[in-house]
Amino acid sequence: MRRGPTPSPPALELLRGRPGRRRAGKGPPEIPAACPEPPDALSVEARAEWEKILPALTEYGIVTVLDGAVLGIYCTLRAQWRELQSILHRDGLMLTRAGGPIPHPALKASLDTAAALRLEQAECGLTPAARCRLKIAGLPAPKSKIQEFLERHDRPPSSAGTPHRPRPS
To answer: Per the domain annotation, does 169 fall within a domain?
Structure first.
């Protein structure tokens, strides 16, 4: 069993950057980014989730044709969690039995599915924390307050910090 954090795919490493300026490892072989085919076993709800998330993942080069199974698991878990949530919404969190109220069995299943879903989201780079670590190429860098100030006052950035002095003739 490997010790330490699970290694990230090279595309995620590239997008996140190298904290601490560590040298990039060799990593697994580069596989071109492409849109994988959806697994045949996806339900209608899971297929809808697939159609929803895959365009963004493909656009930023995070997925390859080999990632179809992992994304299929994520989409299936998401569809199952939604179904369990609708059952809980319809029936309530507690059921009344002869011995008194008991937690709905779908509650435990929903919590277990949510835990598995969080793991899959982290694996695929779909959590808010994972998105914060991504440095996606092609998006403009946020402007500093100084840059915003200079743009509002129509001053070129090169003149910042240097007072204007007339040249001696």
So the answer is: no
Q: Is the dihedral of CA 7, 9, 14, 17 positive or negative?
A: negative
Number of domains in the chain: 1
**CA 165 to CA 133: how far, in whole Å?**
44
Structural domain for 39, as ranges? 10-18+30-159
Contact 36, 67 (CB under 8 A): yes
Give the integer Cα–Cα distance in Å for 48 and 76: 10
Q: What is the pLDDT of residue 118?
A: 92
Instruction: Examine residue 23 and state whether it is found in any structural domain, yes or no.
Output: no
Question: Cα separation of 33 and 125, whole Å?
Answer: 15
- Measure the CA–CA gap between 36 and 65, rounded to whole angstroms: 4
Quick: pLDDT tens for 84-129: 999 999 999 999 888 899 999 999 999 999 999 999 988 888 887 7
Give the distance from CA 142 to its chain's centroid. 20
Q: CA 117 to CA 113: how far, in whole Å?
A: 6
Question: Can you tell me whether residue 96 is helix, strand or coil?
Answer: strand
Distance between CA atoms of residues 152 and 169, nearest Å = 32
